[in-house]
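Re: duplicated header lines in exported structure tokens

Our pipeline writes sequence and tokens for each protein into one text file. With two proteins the header for the second block appears twice in some exports. Here is an export where it did not happen, for reference. First protein block:
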Amino acid sequence: MEDLEETLFEEFENYSYSPEYYSPESDLEEQVPLIAVHWVSLALYCVAFVLGIPGNAIVIWFTGFKWKKTVTTLWFLNLAVADFIFLLFLPLHISYVAMNFHWPFGIWLCKANSFIAQLNMFASVLFLTVISLDRYIQLIHPVVSHRHRTLKNSQIVIIFVWLLASLMGGPALYFRDTVEFNNHTLCYNNFHEHNPDITLMRHHVLTWVKCIFGYLFPLLTMSICYLCLIFKVKKRSILVSSKYSWTILAVVMAFLVCWTPYHLFSIWELTIHYNSSFHQVLQAGIPLSTALAFLNSCLNPILYVLISKKFQARFQASVAEILKYTLWEVSCSGTASEQFRNSETKNPCLLETAQ
């Protein structure tokens, strides 16, 4: 039985993600720095959840319910929805890490949690790309933008993005699995139970698809669009150029800082099939880089929406309107008895109360 467990662990530790590198049989001296790194990653997960949930909820509330539907608000609404759903399932992952990579939630939640994470991770990145393309077309090709930038066309693009994200996140529903090992239930990628060649092939294909469509293509697209925007704006106004440059720099840098380590470690993970000398580096690096990637979902509302002067003005106006209405209701409620005694004055609060 022990030989069977050792063989099983050797099989899946070479093609699974961070939890599977965390071996309960490692020496205590080796575990101490890994435990520290995992607690740091756990703290980053919590920060992403605490900041991202209210930040994205605010964006969803205003862009989805308070403001007029436009192409721009639709982009930001779907970006916020992608990040919000992504972060909504984060407590499951936080619990997984906090319980020393023990998954007590069953195989279906293992599959569903991984699929939702992949789906919304890809959707978030793709919507960032769509926003950069939209800004580029608006400024560089205004005639084309005026002709084709409609709500109907934007809805078609949104459906396409969600379908593409679902397609790229779909393999998690098939390959994600659970296994019992050393009184731990692990949620891992079971690419194949018996054939290492198929395992290696599937791992390589899925990793490179994720890297190309979830990182390289969006990064290249955003970089080209924003560089063109900078050059175009510089020709118009130095002041506007400065504002645009700082915003664009923040967006691109946040994307680079959050996602580059994640994809570098994912690619580096492929070498584990040939060289196991970097196990400890991957044990520490993959959870930390994953947590850093998760942070991008809480930064998006700040970088893309909240730093916008127009959004700030509309946000303040909406909040002021809500407060004004709330105070008006309280005032009406608080003076109800007086209104009934003085109904002949036809106080507008009374009319509203009577309705």
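Second protein block, exported in the same file:
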Amino acid sequence: MNFKKKRWHCLPGQPITALDKQVMYWENKGKLVPTRDMIKTPEQIAGIRIAGKVNTGCLDAVAAIIRPGISTQDIDDVCMQYCKDNNAVPACLNYEGFPKSVCTSINEVVCHGIPKKEDILREGDIVNVDMTLSVNNYFGDASRMFIVGGKTTPEKEQLVRVAKECLEIGAEAAKPYCFVGDIGHAIQKHAEKYHYGVVRDLCGHGVGLAMHEEPEVLHYGHQGTGMLLVPGMVFTIEPMINMGTWKVFIDADDPYGWEVISGDEKPSAQWEHTFLMTETGVEVLSY
């Protein structure tokens, strides 16, 4: 990153605000700061909030049908119908060749699992359902873990719980004028108490006007690193926590080249919310 080229520009003819002063202070110290167009306007936030609410409703619809014996294709069908009923567009469908409307990742599949008729959920499976949709060109994004049948092994149950705690701890670390690295540091510290691996090849991201925007939100790292967090930014936190190694690989049997598997093929869990940074902390827009 070339810090000599300023990313933050004050508006011509406008007085310098307290926000401008805060951002320029850190930029002058050599920190990575957002560009002004990453700060969402009130109108944009209102649109993203609507998309987030619809996205949450879609995951609620999935929660209502998750049970042993259904296929992951059944989950995709529910998501497609929900989008049609709510004038929403499933953002994953045909994104860089992804063939379905939602990601369904079972057990050792870390993320980007492709729904299939032959993938039948069994009691004790853990499955992540990751939905991104747009409403009027604004985007919401979230994922949830489900324990199929409501009961699994103690080891998988702990993994699902700790992954959710990692999301919550990361959100607590996300404060205005702190840094993305503070989020990753908090998540990594908690996960490693349990000797879990925090996936490093994938990350959270800005969202709202597109499915993927700046900044990258790493789920590991050091405090005080990464981009400055500024009120008006919208981003996801979505830690992928593996029972074993943090390393991953692409499933060679996936003809689309999307499904990510844990490196030692042990179970993996992920939770994701979309957050708005405010003057006091984060507000959940989709969960």
